[in-house]
Amino acid sequence: xxxxxxxxxxxxxxxxxxxxxxxxxxxxxxxxxxxxxxxxxxxxxxxxxxxxxxxxxxxxxxxxxxxxxxxxxxxxxxxxxxxxxxxxxxxxxxxxxxxxxxxxxxxxxxxxxxxxxxxxxxxxxxxxxxxxxxxxxxxxxxxxxxxxxxxxxxxxxxxxxxxxxxxxxxxxxxxxxxxxxxxxxxxxxxxxxxxxxxxxxxxxxxxxxxxxxxxxxxxxxxxxxxxxxxxxxxxxxxxxxxxxxxxxxxxxxxxxxxxxxxxxxxxxxxxxxxxxxxxxxxxxxxxxxxxxxxxxxxxxxxxxxxxxxxxxxxx
Length: 315
Fold this sequence. Notes:
The N and C termini lie far apart (41 Å). This protein has 9 helices and 12 strands. The chain is an alpha+beta fold and 315 residues long. The protein has a 5-stranded mixed sheet. A 4-stranded antiparallel sheet has the order 4-6-10-9.
């Protein structure tokens, strides 16, 4: 049975929101022993953004988050197109801006066409798969290729960006978020129906060179972005292609100078970054607040691998 608006809402509240991020991308030319490893202290990654900068960008970019319209038809297996693609891309670039990336990414027409066929397949079969079988309704090889290289969601393309950054139910990899904050992301493909979407993120040629990226990010960040992604529940993350976060021995966080206990886990390689960690507060009721400063330090023994301050502001 096709999911109704009611069941769609319920699915957004459940763990079964979107499939686990597309397959980890490996570099066959780099073995584990050859992977870059940096244990020297890294005190900051870039000049943090100011409250005025993040609030202006947040308010402007979220003024219109319409999903637009879908011109396709599942009954005739017509992929059509979505008028919401620009809004979805705008939110991807918003989150990357907040995380400190300096160059916006773009969409690629071929990748978006493939992603549109991917979204049609998910919609026509009312389920998600990174490896859809050839007997699926509305199956195409282009759509199947995109499915294996995409973040895929049981929701339309614009709202799914927030959901990927939240990454509910994906604690083992945090792959959706990590792909959106990857140095090499872009150009991407975005396809959406009224109920399903595919964001083709694997295979990018982006040239950002950030030493590490974090969510919540260093510097000022809208508290609205925190409430959208709820990192206190779904996890704070740090990812890097050069700092060997696999050597992490502890993560220390203070809230306006007071220590807050966090538990951390090391994440597998290949989901948008070579290395990554996820950490959550030991007290499940603890929440971030605007006007507070949260100092984060990631350690390998006594060596600081990453150090930054998160400062939520009301926008």
